[in-house]
Target: Serine acetyltransferase
Amino acid sequence: MFARLRSDIQCILDRDPAARSTWEVITCYPGLHAVWLHRPAHWCWGNGLKWLGRFISHFARWFTGIEIHPGAKIGERVFFDHAMGVVVGETAEIGDGCTIYQGVTLGGTSLYKGAKRHPTLGKDVVVSAGAKVLGGFEVGDGAKIGSNAVVIKPVPAGATAVGIPARIIPSKEGQSADVTEPQQPRKFTAYGITQEDDPLSQAMRGLIDNASSQEHQIALLWQAIEKLSAMQKTQDCVPCDAALKEQFEAGKLTELVGK
Model:
C-alpha cells in the first residue's frame, strides 16, 4: 500500500515542474486527493456498499472539484493535473500512467444500465484540457487527446486525436509521437499536443509552401513571355525554367485535414 502511495506522489513530481516537494504534493494537489479518496469509494462500491461509495465520491467532488464515479476503475500512477471540473463516468477505465487535465469528461452516450457506456483509456494516455471522450470504446496505449477535442470513436495506440469531431492522426511506425527512438524512454508532452500534431496546421503549411512555389513559377513564366515578345524568331527563344508539371498534392493535404 505504501509503495503505491509513493508512486502516486512520484508520478506528480515527475510530470509537474511546479511540484517542489513531497509535502507540497501531499497537501496541495487535489488530483492526488481525488485518487486517494476514490480507492475507498471504489472498494465500497464493489463490496455492496453502494450508498457509502457514492457518498465518499460526493465528498471528494466537493473537496477537490473532481467527480469520479465510485464504479470507475483507475490504474496506478494516474495524475489528474489541476483537474477542476473533471467528470469520470461509472464504467470508465483509466490505465496506468495516464494524465488527465482540467475540464475533461469521460462520458457515455447510452442510457442502458449495466452496459459499457464510458471509455477505456490504455496506458500512458494524455487527455488534454476540455476534451470530451464519449462512448464505450478504447483509447490505445500512448495516445494523446488534444485540448477541447470531442472523441466519439476509438483511438489507436500512439495516435493523436484533435478537433470537433476529433480527427485521428496515426502514429509513425506504430509508435507514439512522444518516442523519438525505440530504446529511449517515453518523453512526456504536457497537454498532449504540439503544433506538429494539428492536421489543419500541417495542411495550411503545405498550402503556403505551394502558393510560394507557384508565385516563383509565375514570375519565371512572365520572364519567358517578355523574352519571347522581344524576339523576332521563335527559334532564338531561351527555354524557361518554369515547371510544366503540376506539383499540387491535393490528395495528401485532404488526408491531413481528415476528410
Remarks:
- The chain has two domains: 2-197, 201-257.
- Confidence is low (pLDDT under 50) at residues 174-184.
- The helical segments are 2-15, 22-28, 30-46, 50-64, 199-230, 250-257.
- The radius of gyration is 26 Å.
